[in-house]
Amino acid sequence: MKKTAESIKTQKGKNKITMLTAYDSLFSSILDEADIDIVLVGDSVGMVALGYNSTIPVTLDDIIHHTSAAARSVKNSLVVADMPFMTFGISEENTLKNAAALIQKGSADAVKLEGAGSNLKSIEVLVEKGIPVMGHLGLTPQSIKQFGSYKTRGTTQEEAEAIVKDAKKLEEAGAFAIVLEKIPYKLAEFITQSISIPTIGIGAGPFCDGQVLVLYDMLGMFDKFTPKFVKKYAELKPAILEAVTHYKKDVTSGSFPELKHSFDINDEIMNNLKNRK
């Protein structure tokens, strides 16, 4: 059965929520087959697949393109699309227009946006118009220019209190879940116990209502850097590199392709062609 924002909410306190990122149809179909609750088309696509140094350059068209690809092969998982940098928070009208594009053109089931503050009214408008919203607090990568680093958030009294308040405000604004990224596990546990909507942690410890990882991190494919919170369930890059290197060796040596990889033609046709030279 197709998962919805509402069905995800009902998992709080009952079943742990699973979420993984994917940016294409192939990987999304695998996540769907594995019964992952949420497929996130994150703006991390900028660093993982598009070669950027941050998520800042990712555009709305980028996310629409990758979300539509991912959604085509998903039957049961909830597909959540990230709202990229500067596609929300400018005005309620602007936010609604961009979120609607992710739903209509990208076939997303819900959108995710970073932060609270001035976004709260926009979230209320989106929810009122029927667009489910997932929040995101703690480390918010789109704010890297402001914070200057990817360090852990919520380690000071002031910052911890602000994150708690923002979580409650997101709940009040109508968010159906909140991603908590790279905050102390005790703070994440406190927030999880303080609100009625699910928390999904990434680097936020074991006490959240669910967990999310970048698929390419946990498969050992992206190795430019590996955050402390990543658990690698496979080491695919070495295996892929070995296979590609083997392929190159076979082609350059002439051992691939063999006749068994080829197609034949009737000898009479070939004789006719040769005779016409």
Topology, element by element:
Elements: H1 5-9, E1 17-21, H2 25-33, E2 38-41, H3 45-48, H4 60-72, E3 78-82, H5 92-104, E4 110-112, H6 120-128, E5 133-138, H7 144-147, H8 157-173, E6 177-181, H9 185-194, E7 199-202, E8 210-213, H10 215-218, H11 236-253, H12 267-275
Parallel strand pairs: 1-2, 1-8, 2-3, 3-4, 4-5, 5-6, 6-7, 7-8
Brief overview:
The chain is of the alpha/beta class and 277 residues long. It has helices at residues 5-9, 25-33, 45-48, 60-72, 92-104, 120-128, 144-147, 157-173, 185-194, 215-218, 236-253, 267-275; strands spanning 17-21, 38-41, 78-82, 110-112, 133-138, 177-181, 199-202, 210-213. It folds into 2 domains: 5-234, TIM Barrel (Alpha-Beta Barrel); 239-275, no CATH class.
User: What is the average of the pLDDT values?
Assistant: 94
So, the CATH homologous superfamily of the largest domain? Phosphoenolpyruvate-binding domains
Given helix and strand content, the structural type is alpha/beta
Looking at the overall shape, the CATH architecture of the largest domain is: Alpha-Beta Barrel
- The number of E-state strands comes to 8
The percentage of residues in β strands lies in 5-15%
CATH level-3 fold name of the largest domain: TIM Barrel
Strand order of the largest sheet: 1-2-3-4-5-6-7-8
SSE arrangement, N to C: HEHEHHEHEHEHHEHEEHHH
What is the CA-atom radius of gyration, in angstroms?
A: 23 Å
Spans of at least 5 consecutive residues whose pLDDT stays below 50 are none
Number of domains: 2
Count the DSSP helices. 12
